[in-house]
Amino acid sequence: MLSYLFWTAVSFFSGSVMYSYLIPKLLFKKDITKISKDGNPGCGNVFTCVGIPCGIFCLLLELAKGAVPIWLALKYVSPDNLMFAGVLAGPVLGHAFSPMLKNHGGKAIAVTFGTYIGLCPHSVILFMLAVPFVFFSTVLRITPHSLRVMISYATMLGSSLFFENRTPVLFGAAIITAAVIYRHFGDYIQREKRQYGVYLFSFRLFGREAEENELSHSGKA
User: pLDDT tens, 141-151?
Assistant: First the structure.
């Protein structure tokens, strides 16, 4: 039991180190929580606000802070023990609710992929997340990004019920899904204002996009 608690703490601490916030601030004197549109301390905003080289560096660090503690933990604890769910969810919870930023963390997409990379080859859940992400980004394209993320994670969790045979991994994935949806839901409601769009490749199927809302407002004016 102590081993699982120890590795849960290690994975949470690893996830709580906000590289995408620290690196731009230390190297370029830029606070991406202030200069980005959504204030998210994630590597996506580093690419946009600082540049591609720094973005790639931060992305690798975000992946590593999820993968490394899980990879190390699996040398000492079993993924078949229910307490492993806490170890698995630790990096994502640490990132999403980072004490470094007074619990105002990031949206935890990169660190989720890193966490699932660390779980390979013990689980195929990495592919359960990658497939809907690619599908809803290219084939049946869903906008905005926050809605696409929430649907992709929900799809990952649902499909994992059929393809993942380890209950602790399922519980960990459920915690991760809840945390990521929580971090994106507020953005979807407040900043995206419940707009949505569904496209088959480039052909629009249905939706309620920003341009429609702007036209309706201008018509009323």
Answer: 999 999 999 99
Amino acid letter, residue 142: I
CA angle 92, 55, 53 (to 5 degrees): 150
Q: Is 20 helix (H, G, I), strand (E, B) or coil?
A: helix
Q: Is 89 exposed, middle or buried (0-12, 13-18, 19+ CB in 10 A)?
A: buried
Residue ranges per domain, the chain? Answer: 2-220
Cα–Cα–Cα angle for 31, 23, 179, nearest 5°? 75
Instruction: Give the whole-angstrom CA distance, residue 142 versus residue 149.
Output: 9
Helix axis angle, 52-73 to 19-28, nearest 10°:
140
CA 53 from centroid of its chain's CA atoms: 21
Is residue 18 classed as helix, strand or coil in its secondary structure? coil
pLDDT digits (tens, 9 = 90+) for 112-168: 999 999 999 989 999 999 999 999 999 999 999 999 999 999 999 999 999 999 999
CA dihedral for 117, 31, 189, 211, sign (positive or negative): negative
DSSP string, 66-116: HHHHHHHHTTTS-TTSTTHHHHHHHHHHHHHT-GGGTT-----HHHHHHHH
Specify which residues 198 forms β-bridges with. Answer: 142, 206
71 backbone dihedrals φ, ψ, rounded to 5°:
-60, -40
Residue 143 backbone phi and psi in degrees, to 5: -125, 155
170's tokens = 């399922």
